[in-house]
Amino acid sequence: MRLPATAVIFCGGRSTRMGRDKALLDWKGKPLALHVAERIAPMFERAVISGSPGLYRGLGLRCVPDLGGSGPLAGLFATLLDAQTPAIFAIACDMPFADPSAVLELWKRLKGFDAAIPISPSGPEPLHAFYSKRVLPAVGRALEGKARMTGWWGECRVARVNAAGLPGGERGMADCDTPAEWNTIRRVQ
């Protein structure tokens, strides 16, 4: 059974610290974003990419461009607006160790809440989280006010989930923002 939600692989961003597009980094012979999609998308009724169709068309999923904003909050707003399911699972394109069991656990934690977001020692992991379409108005207001990705949480019921308690723990949320982090992740393969 597939989850009645949409998997959204967040590509784009400027990748300034990495120096090149993280979504297109080679991971075992394919783009990193494609690896993440193949690992997570089969669990869901639908899957899309949040990012520019011109850049990511070759990944084989429909792309949902941001609606005039910038950053992940604009991508969250656009993909929630686009979703034909009651919820989305947002995941960054640079999380190759995402654990499907952790995704299922987060899905269970969404019940009774508007979002289920892991919290790691470094803070919230909003790009490894579930969002109900009910958060759309609050996300829209946060986007208009140029707020951060977490700027709308006070308006909604957010389940804050201890990342260490999820299957795969924090390793499943490991991402890479710099060449050094990328090299570390590649060694762990």
What key attributes describe this structure?
189 residues; alpha/beta; Spore Coat Polysaccharide Biosynthesis Protein SpsA, Chain A; two-stranded antiparallel sheet; 6 helices
Order of helices and strands: EEEHEHEHEHEEEHEH
- At CATH level 3, the topology is Spore Coat Polysaccharide Biosynthesis Protein SpsA, Chain A
CATH class: Alpha Beta
How many independent structural domains?
1
CATH-derived architecture: Alpha-Beta Complex
The biggest sheet amounts to: 8 strands, mixed
Alpha-beta content class: alpha/beta
Q: What is the mean predicted local confidence, pLDDT?
A: 93
Count of helical regions: 6
- Ranges where pLDDT stays below 50 over 5 or more residues in a row are none
The CATH fourth-level homologous superfamily: Spore Coat Polysaccharide Biosynthesis Protein SpsA, Chain A
**Helix proportion range:** 25-40%
Strand content: 15-25%
Based on Cα principal axes, name the global outline: globular
Query: How many angstroms does the end-to-end distance come to?
Result: 29 Å
Number of strands: 10
Rg estimate, integer Å:
15 Å
